[in-house]
Amino acid sequence: IGDDRPCVIPLGCWGFNGDSRTDNMCREETKRVDCSFKRSPGVISCRQEGNNVVHLSYIDTHALRQELDDLLCQRYPELFRDRDGDGAETAMCWGFTCGDGWFGIIDALCSEIAAQVRHGRMPAVVVSQVKEKSGLLRFHIRGGFLRGGNAETHRLIELAQQQALHTCEECGQPGKLLDVGKPVVVCPLCANQD
Fold first, then answer.
1. What are the tens digits of pLDDT across the range 103-157?
2. Are 44 and 60 in contact (CB under 8 A)?
């Protein structure tokens, strides 16, 4: 698995990537038609056909190093209480799917949200997904489409997204959005590494 050849995975046996959070996720009761399976460093998009899951595509992604993932979850347990949740309910079960260079931005955003919540200036939030998409930082919270109900949180998220737009996703140095086969925010050094 991981190349572009079609493959068939028996239902109930999925998520083999060396990550204890996703390995051994045998779910005989799984009957969802559209599902994604985490595989480091990407996601395998699949669909169910009868009793099998058919591999459709492999999407190249990357994730924060495990120690950075763990650090964010330790520092902000209330924000990331769904980190090991069910994939049918939260995308945080797949981790932080962005490069290490955005760790400082995500950490600062979480720190500010946690402080605002602690001081009663905004309602508590739970993060449902943190990822890179089309070269941009995406930071989703539960009920995130209800902007009027939590305007300050959305303002902070938008500031972090603007900062990420000028920060190399790989190393954290100043960068810019480039199209290198896909949109990415990189610095000149990281852009020339491949």
1. 999 999 999 999 999 999 888 999 999 999 999 999 999 865 555 668 889 999 9
2. no
Q: How far apart (Å, rounded) are the C-alpha atoms in residues 108 and 21? A: 26
The tens digit of pLDDT for each residue in 29-54 reads 333 323 343 333 444 445 556 665 55
* Two structure tokens written together for 160: 């972090």
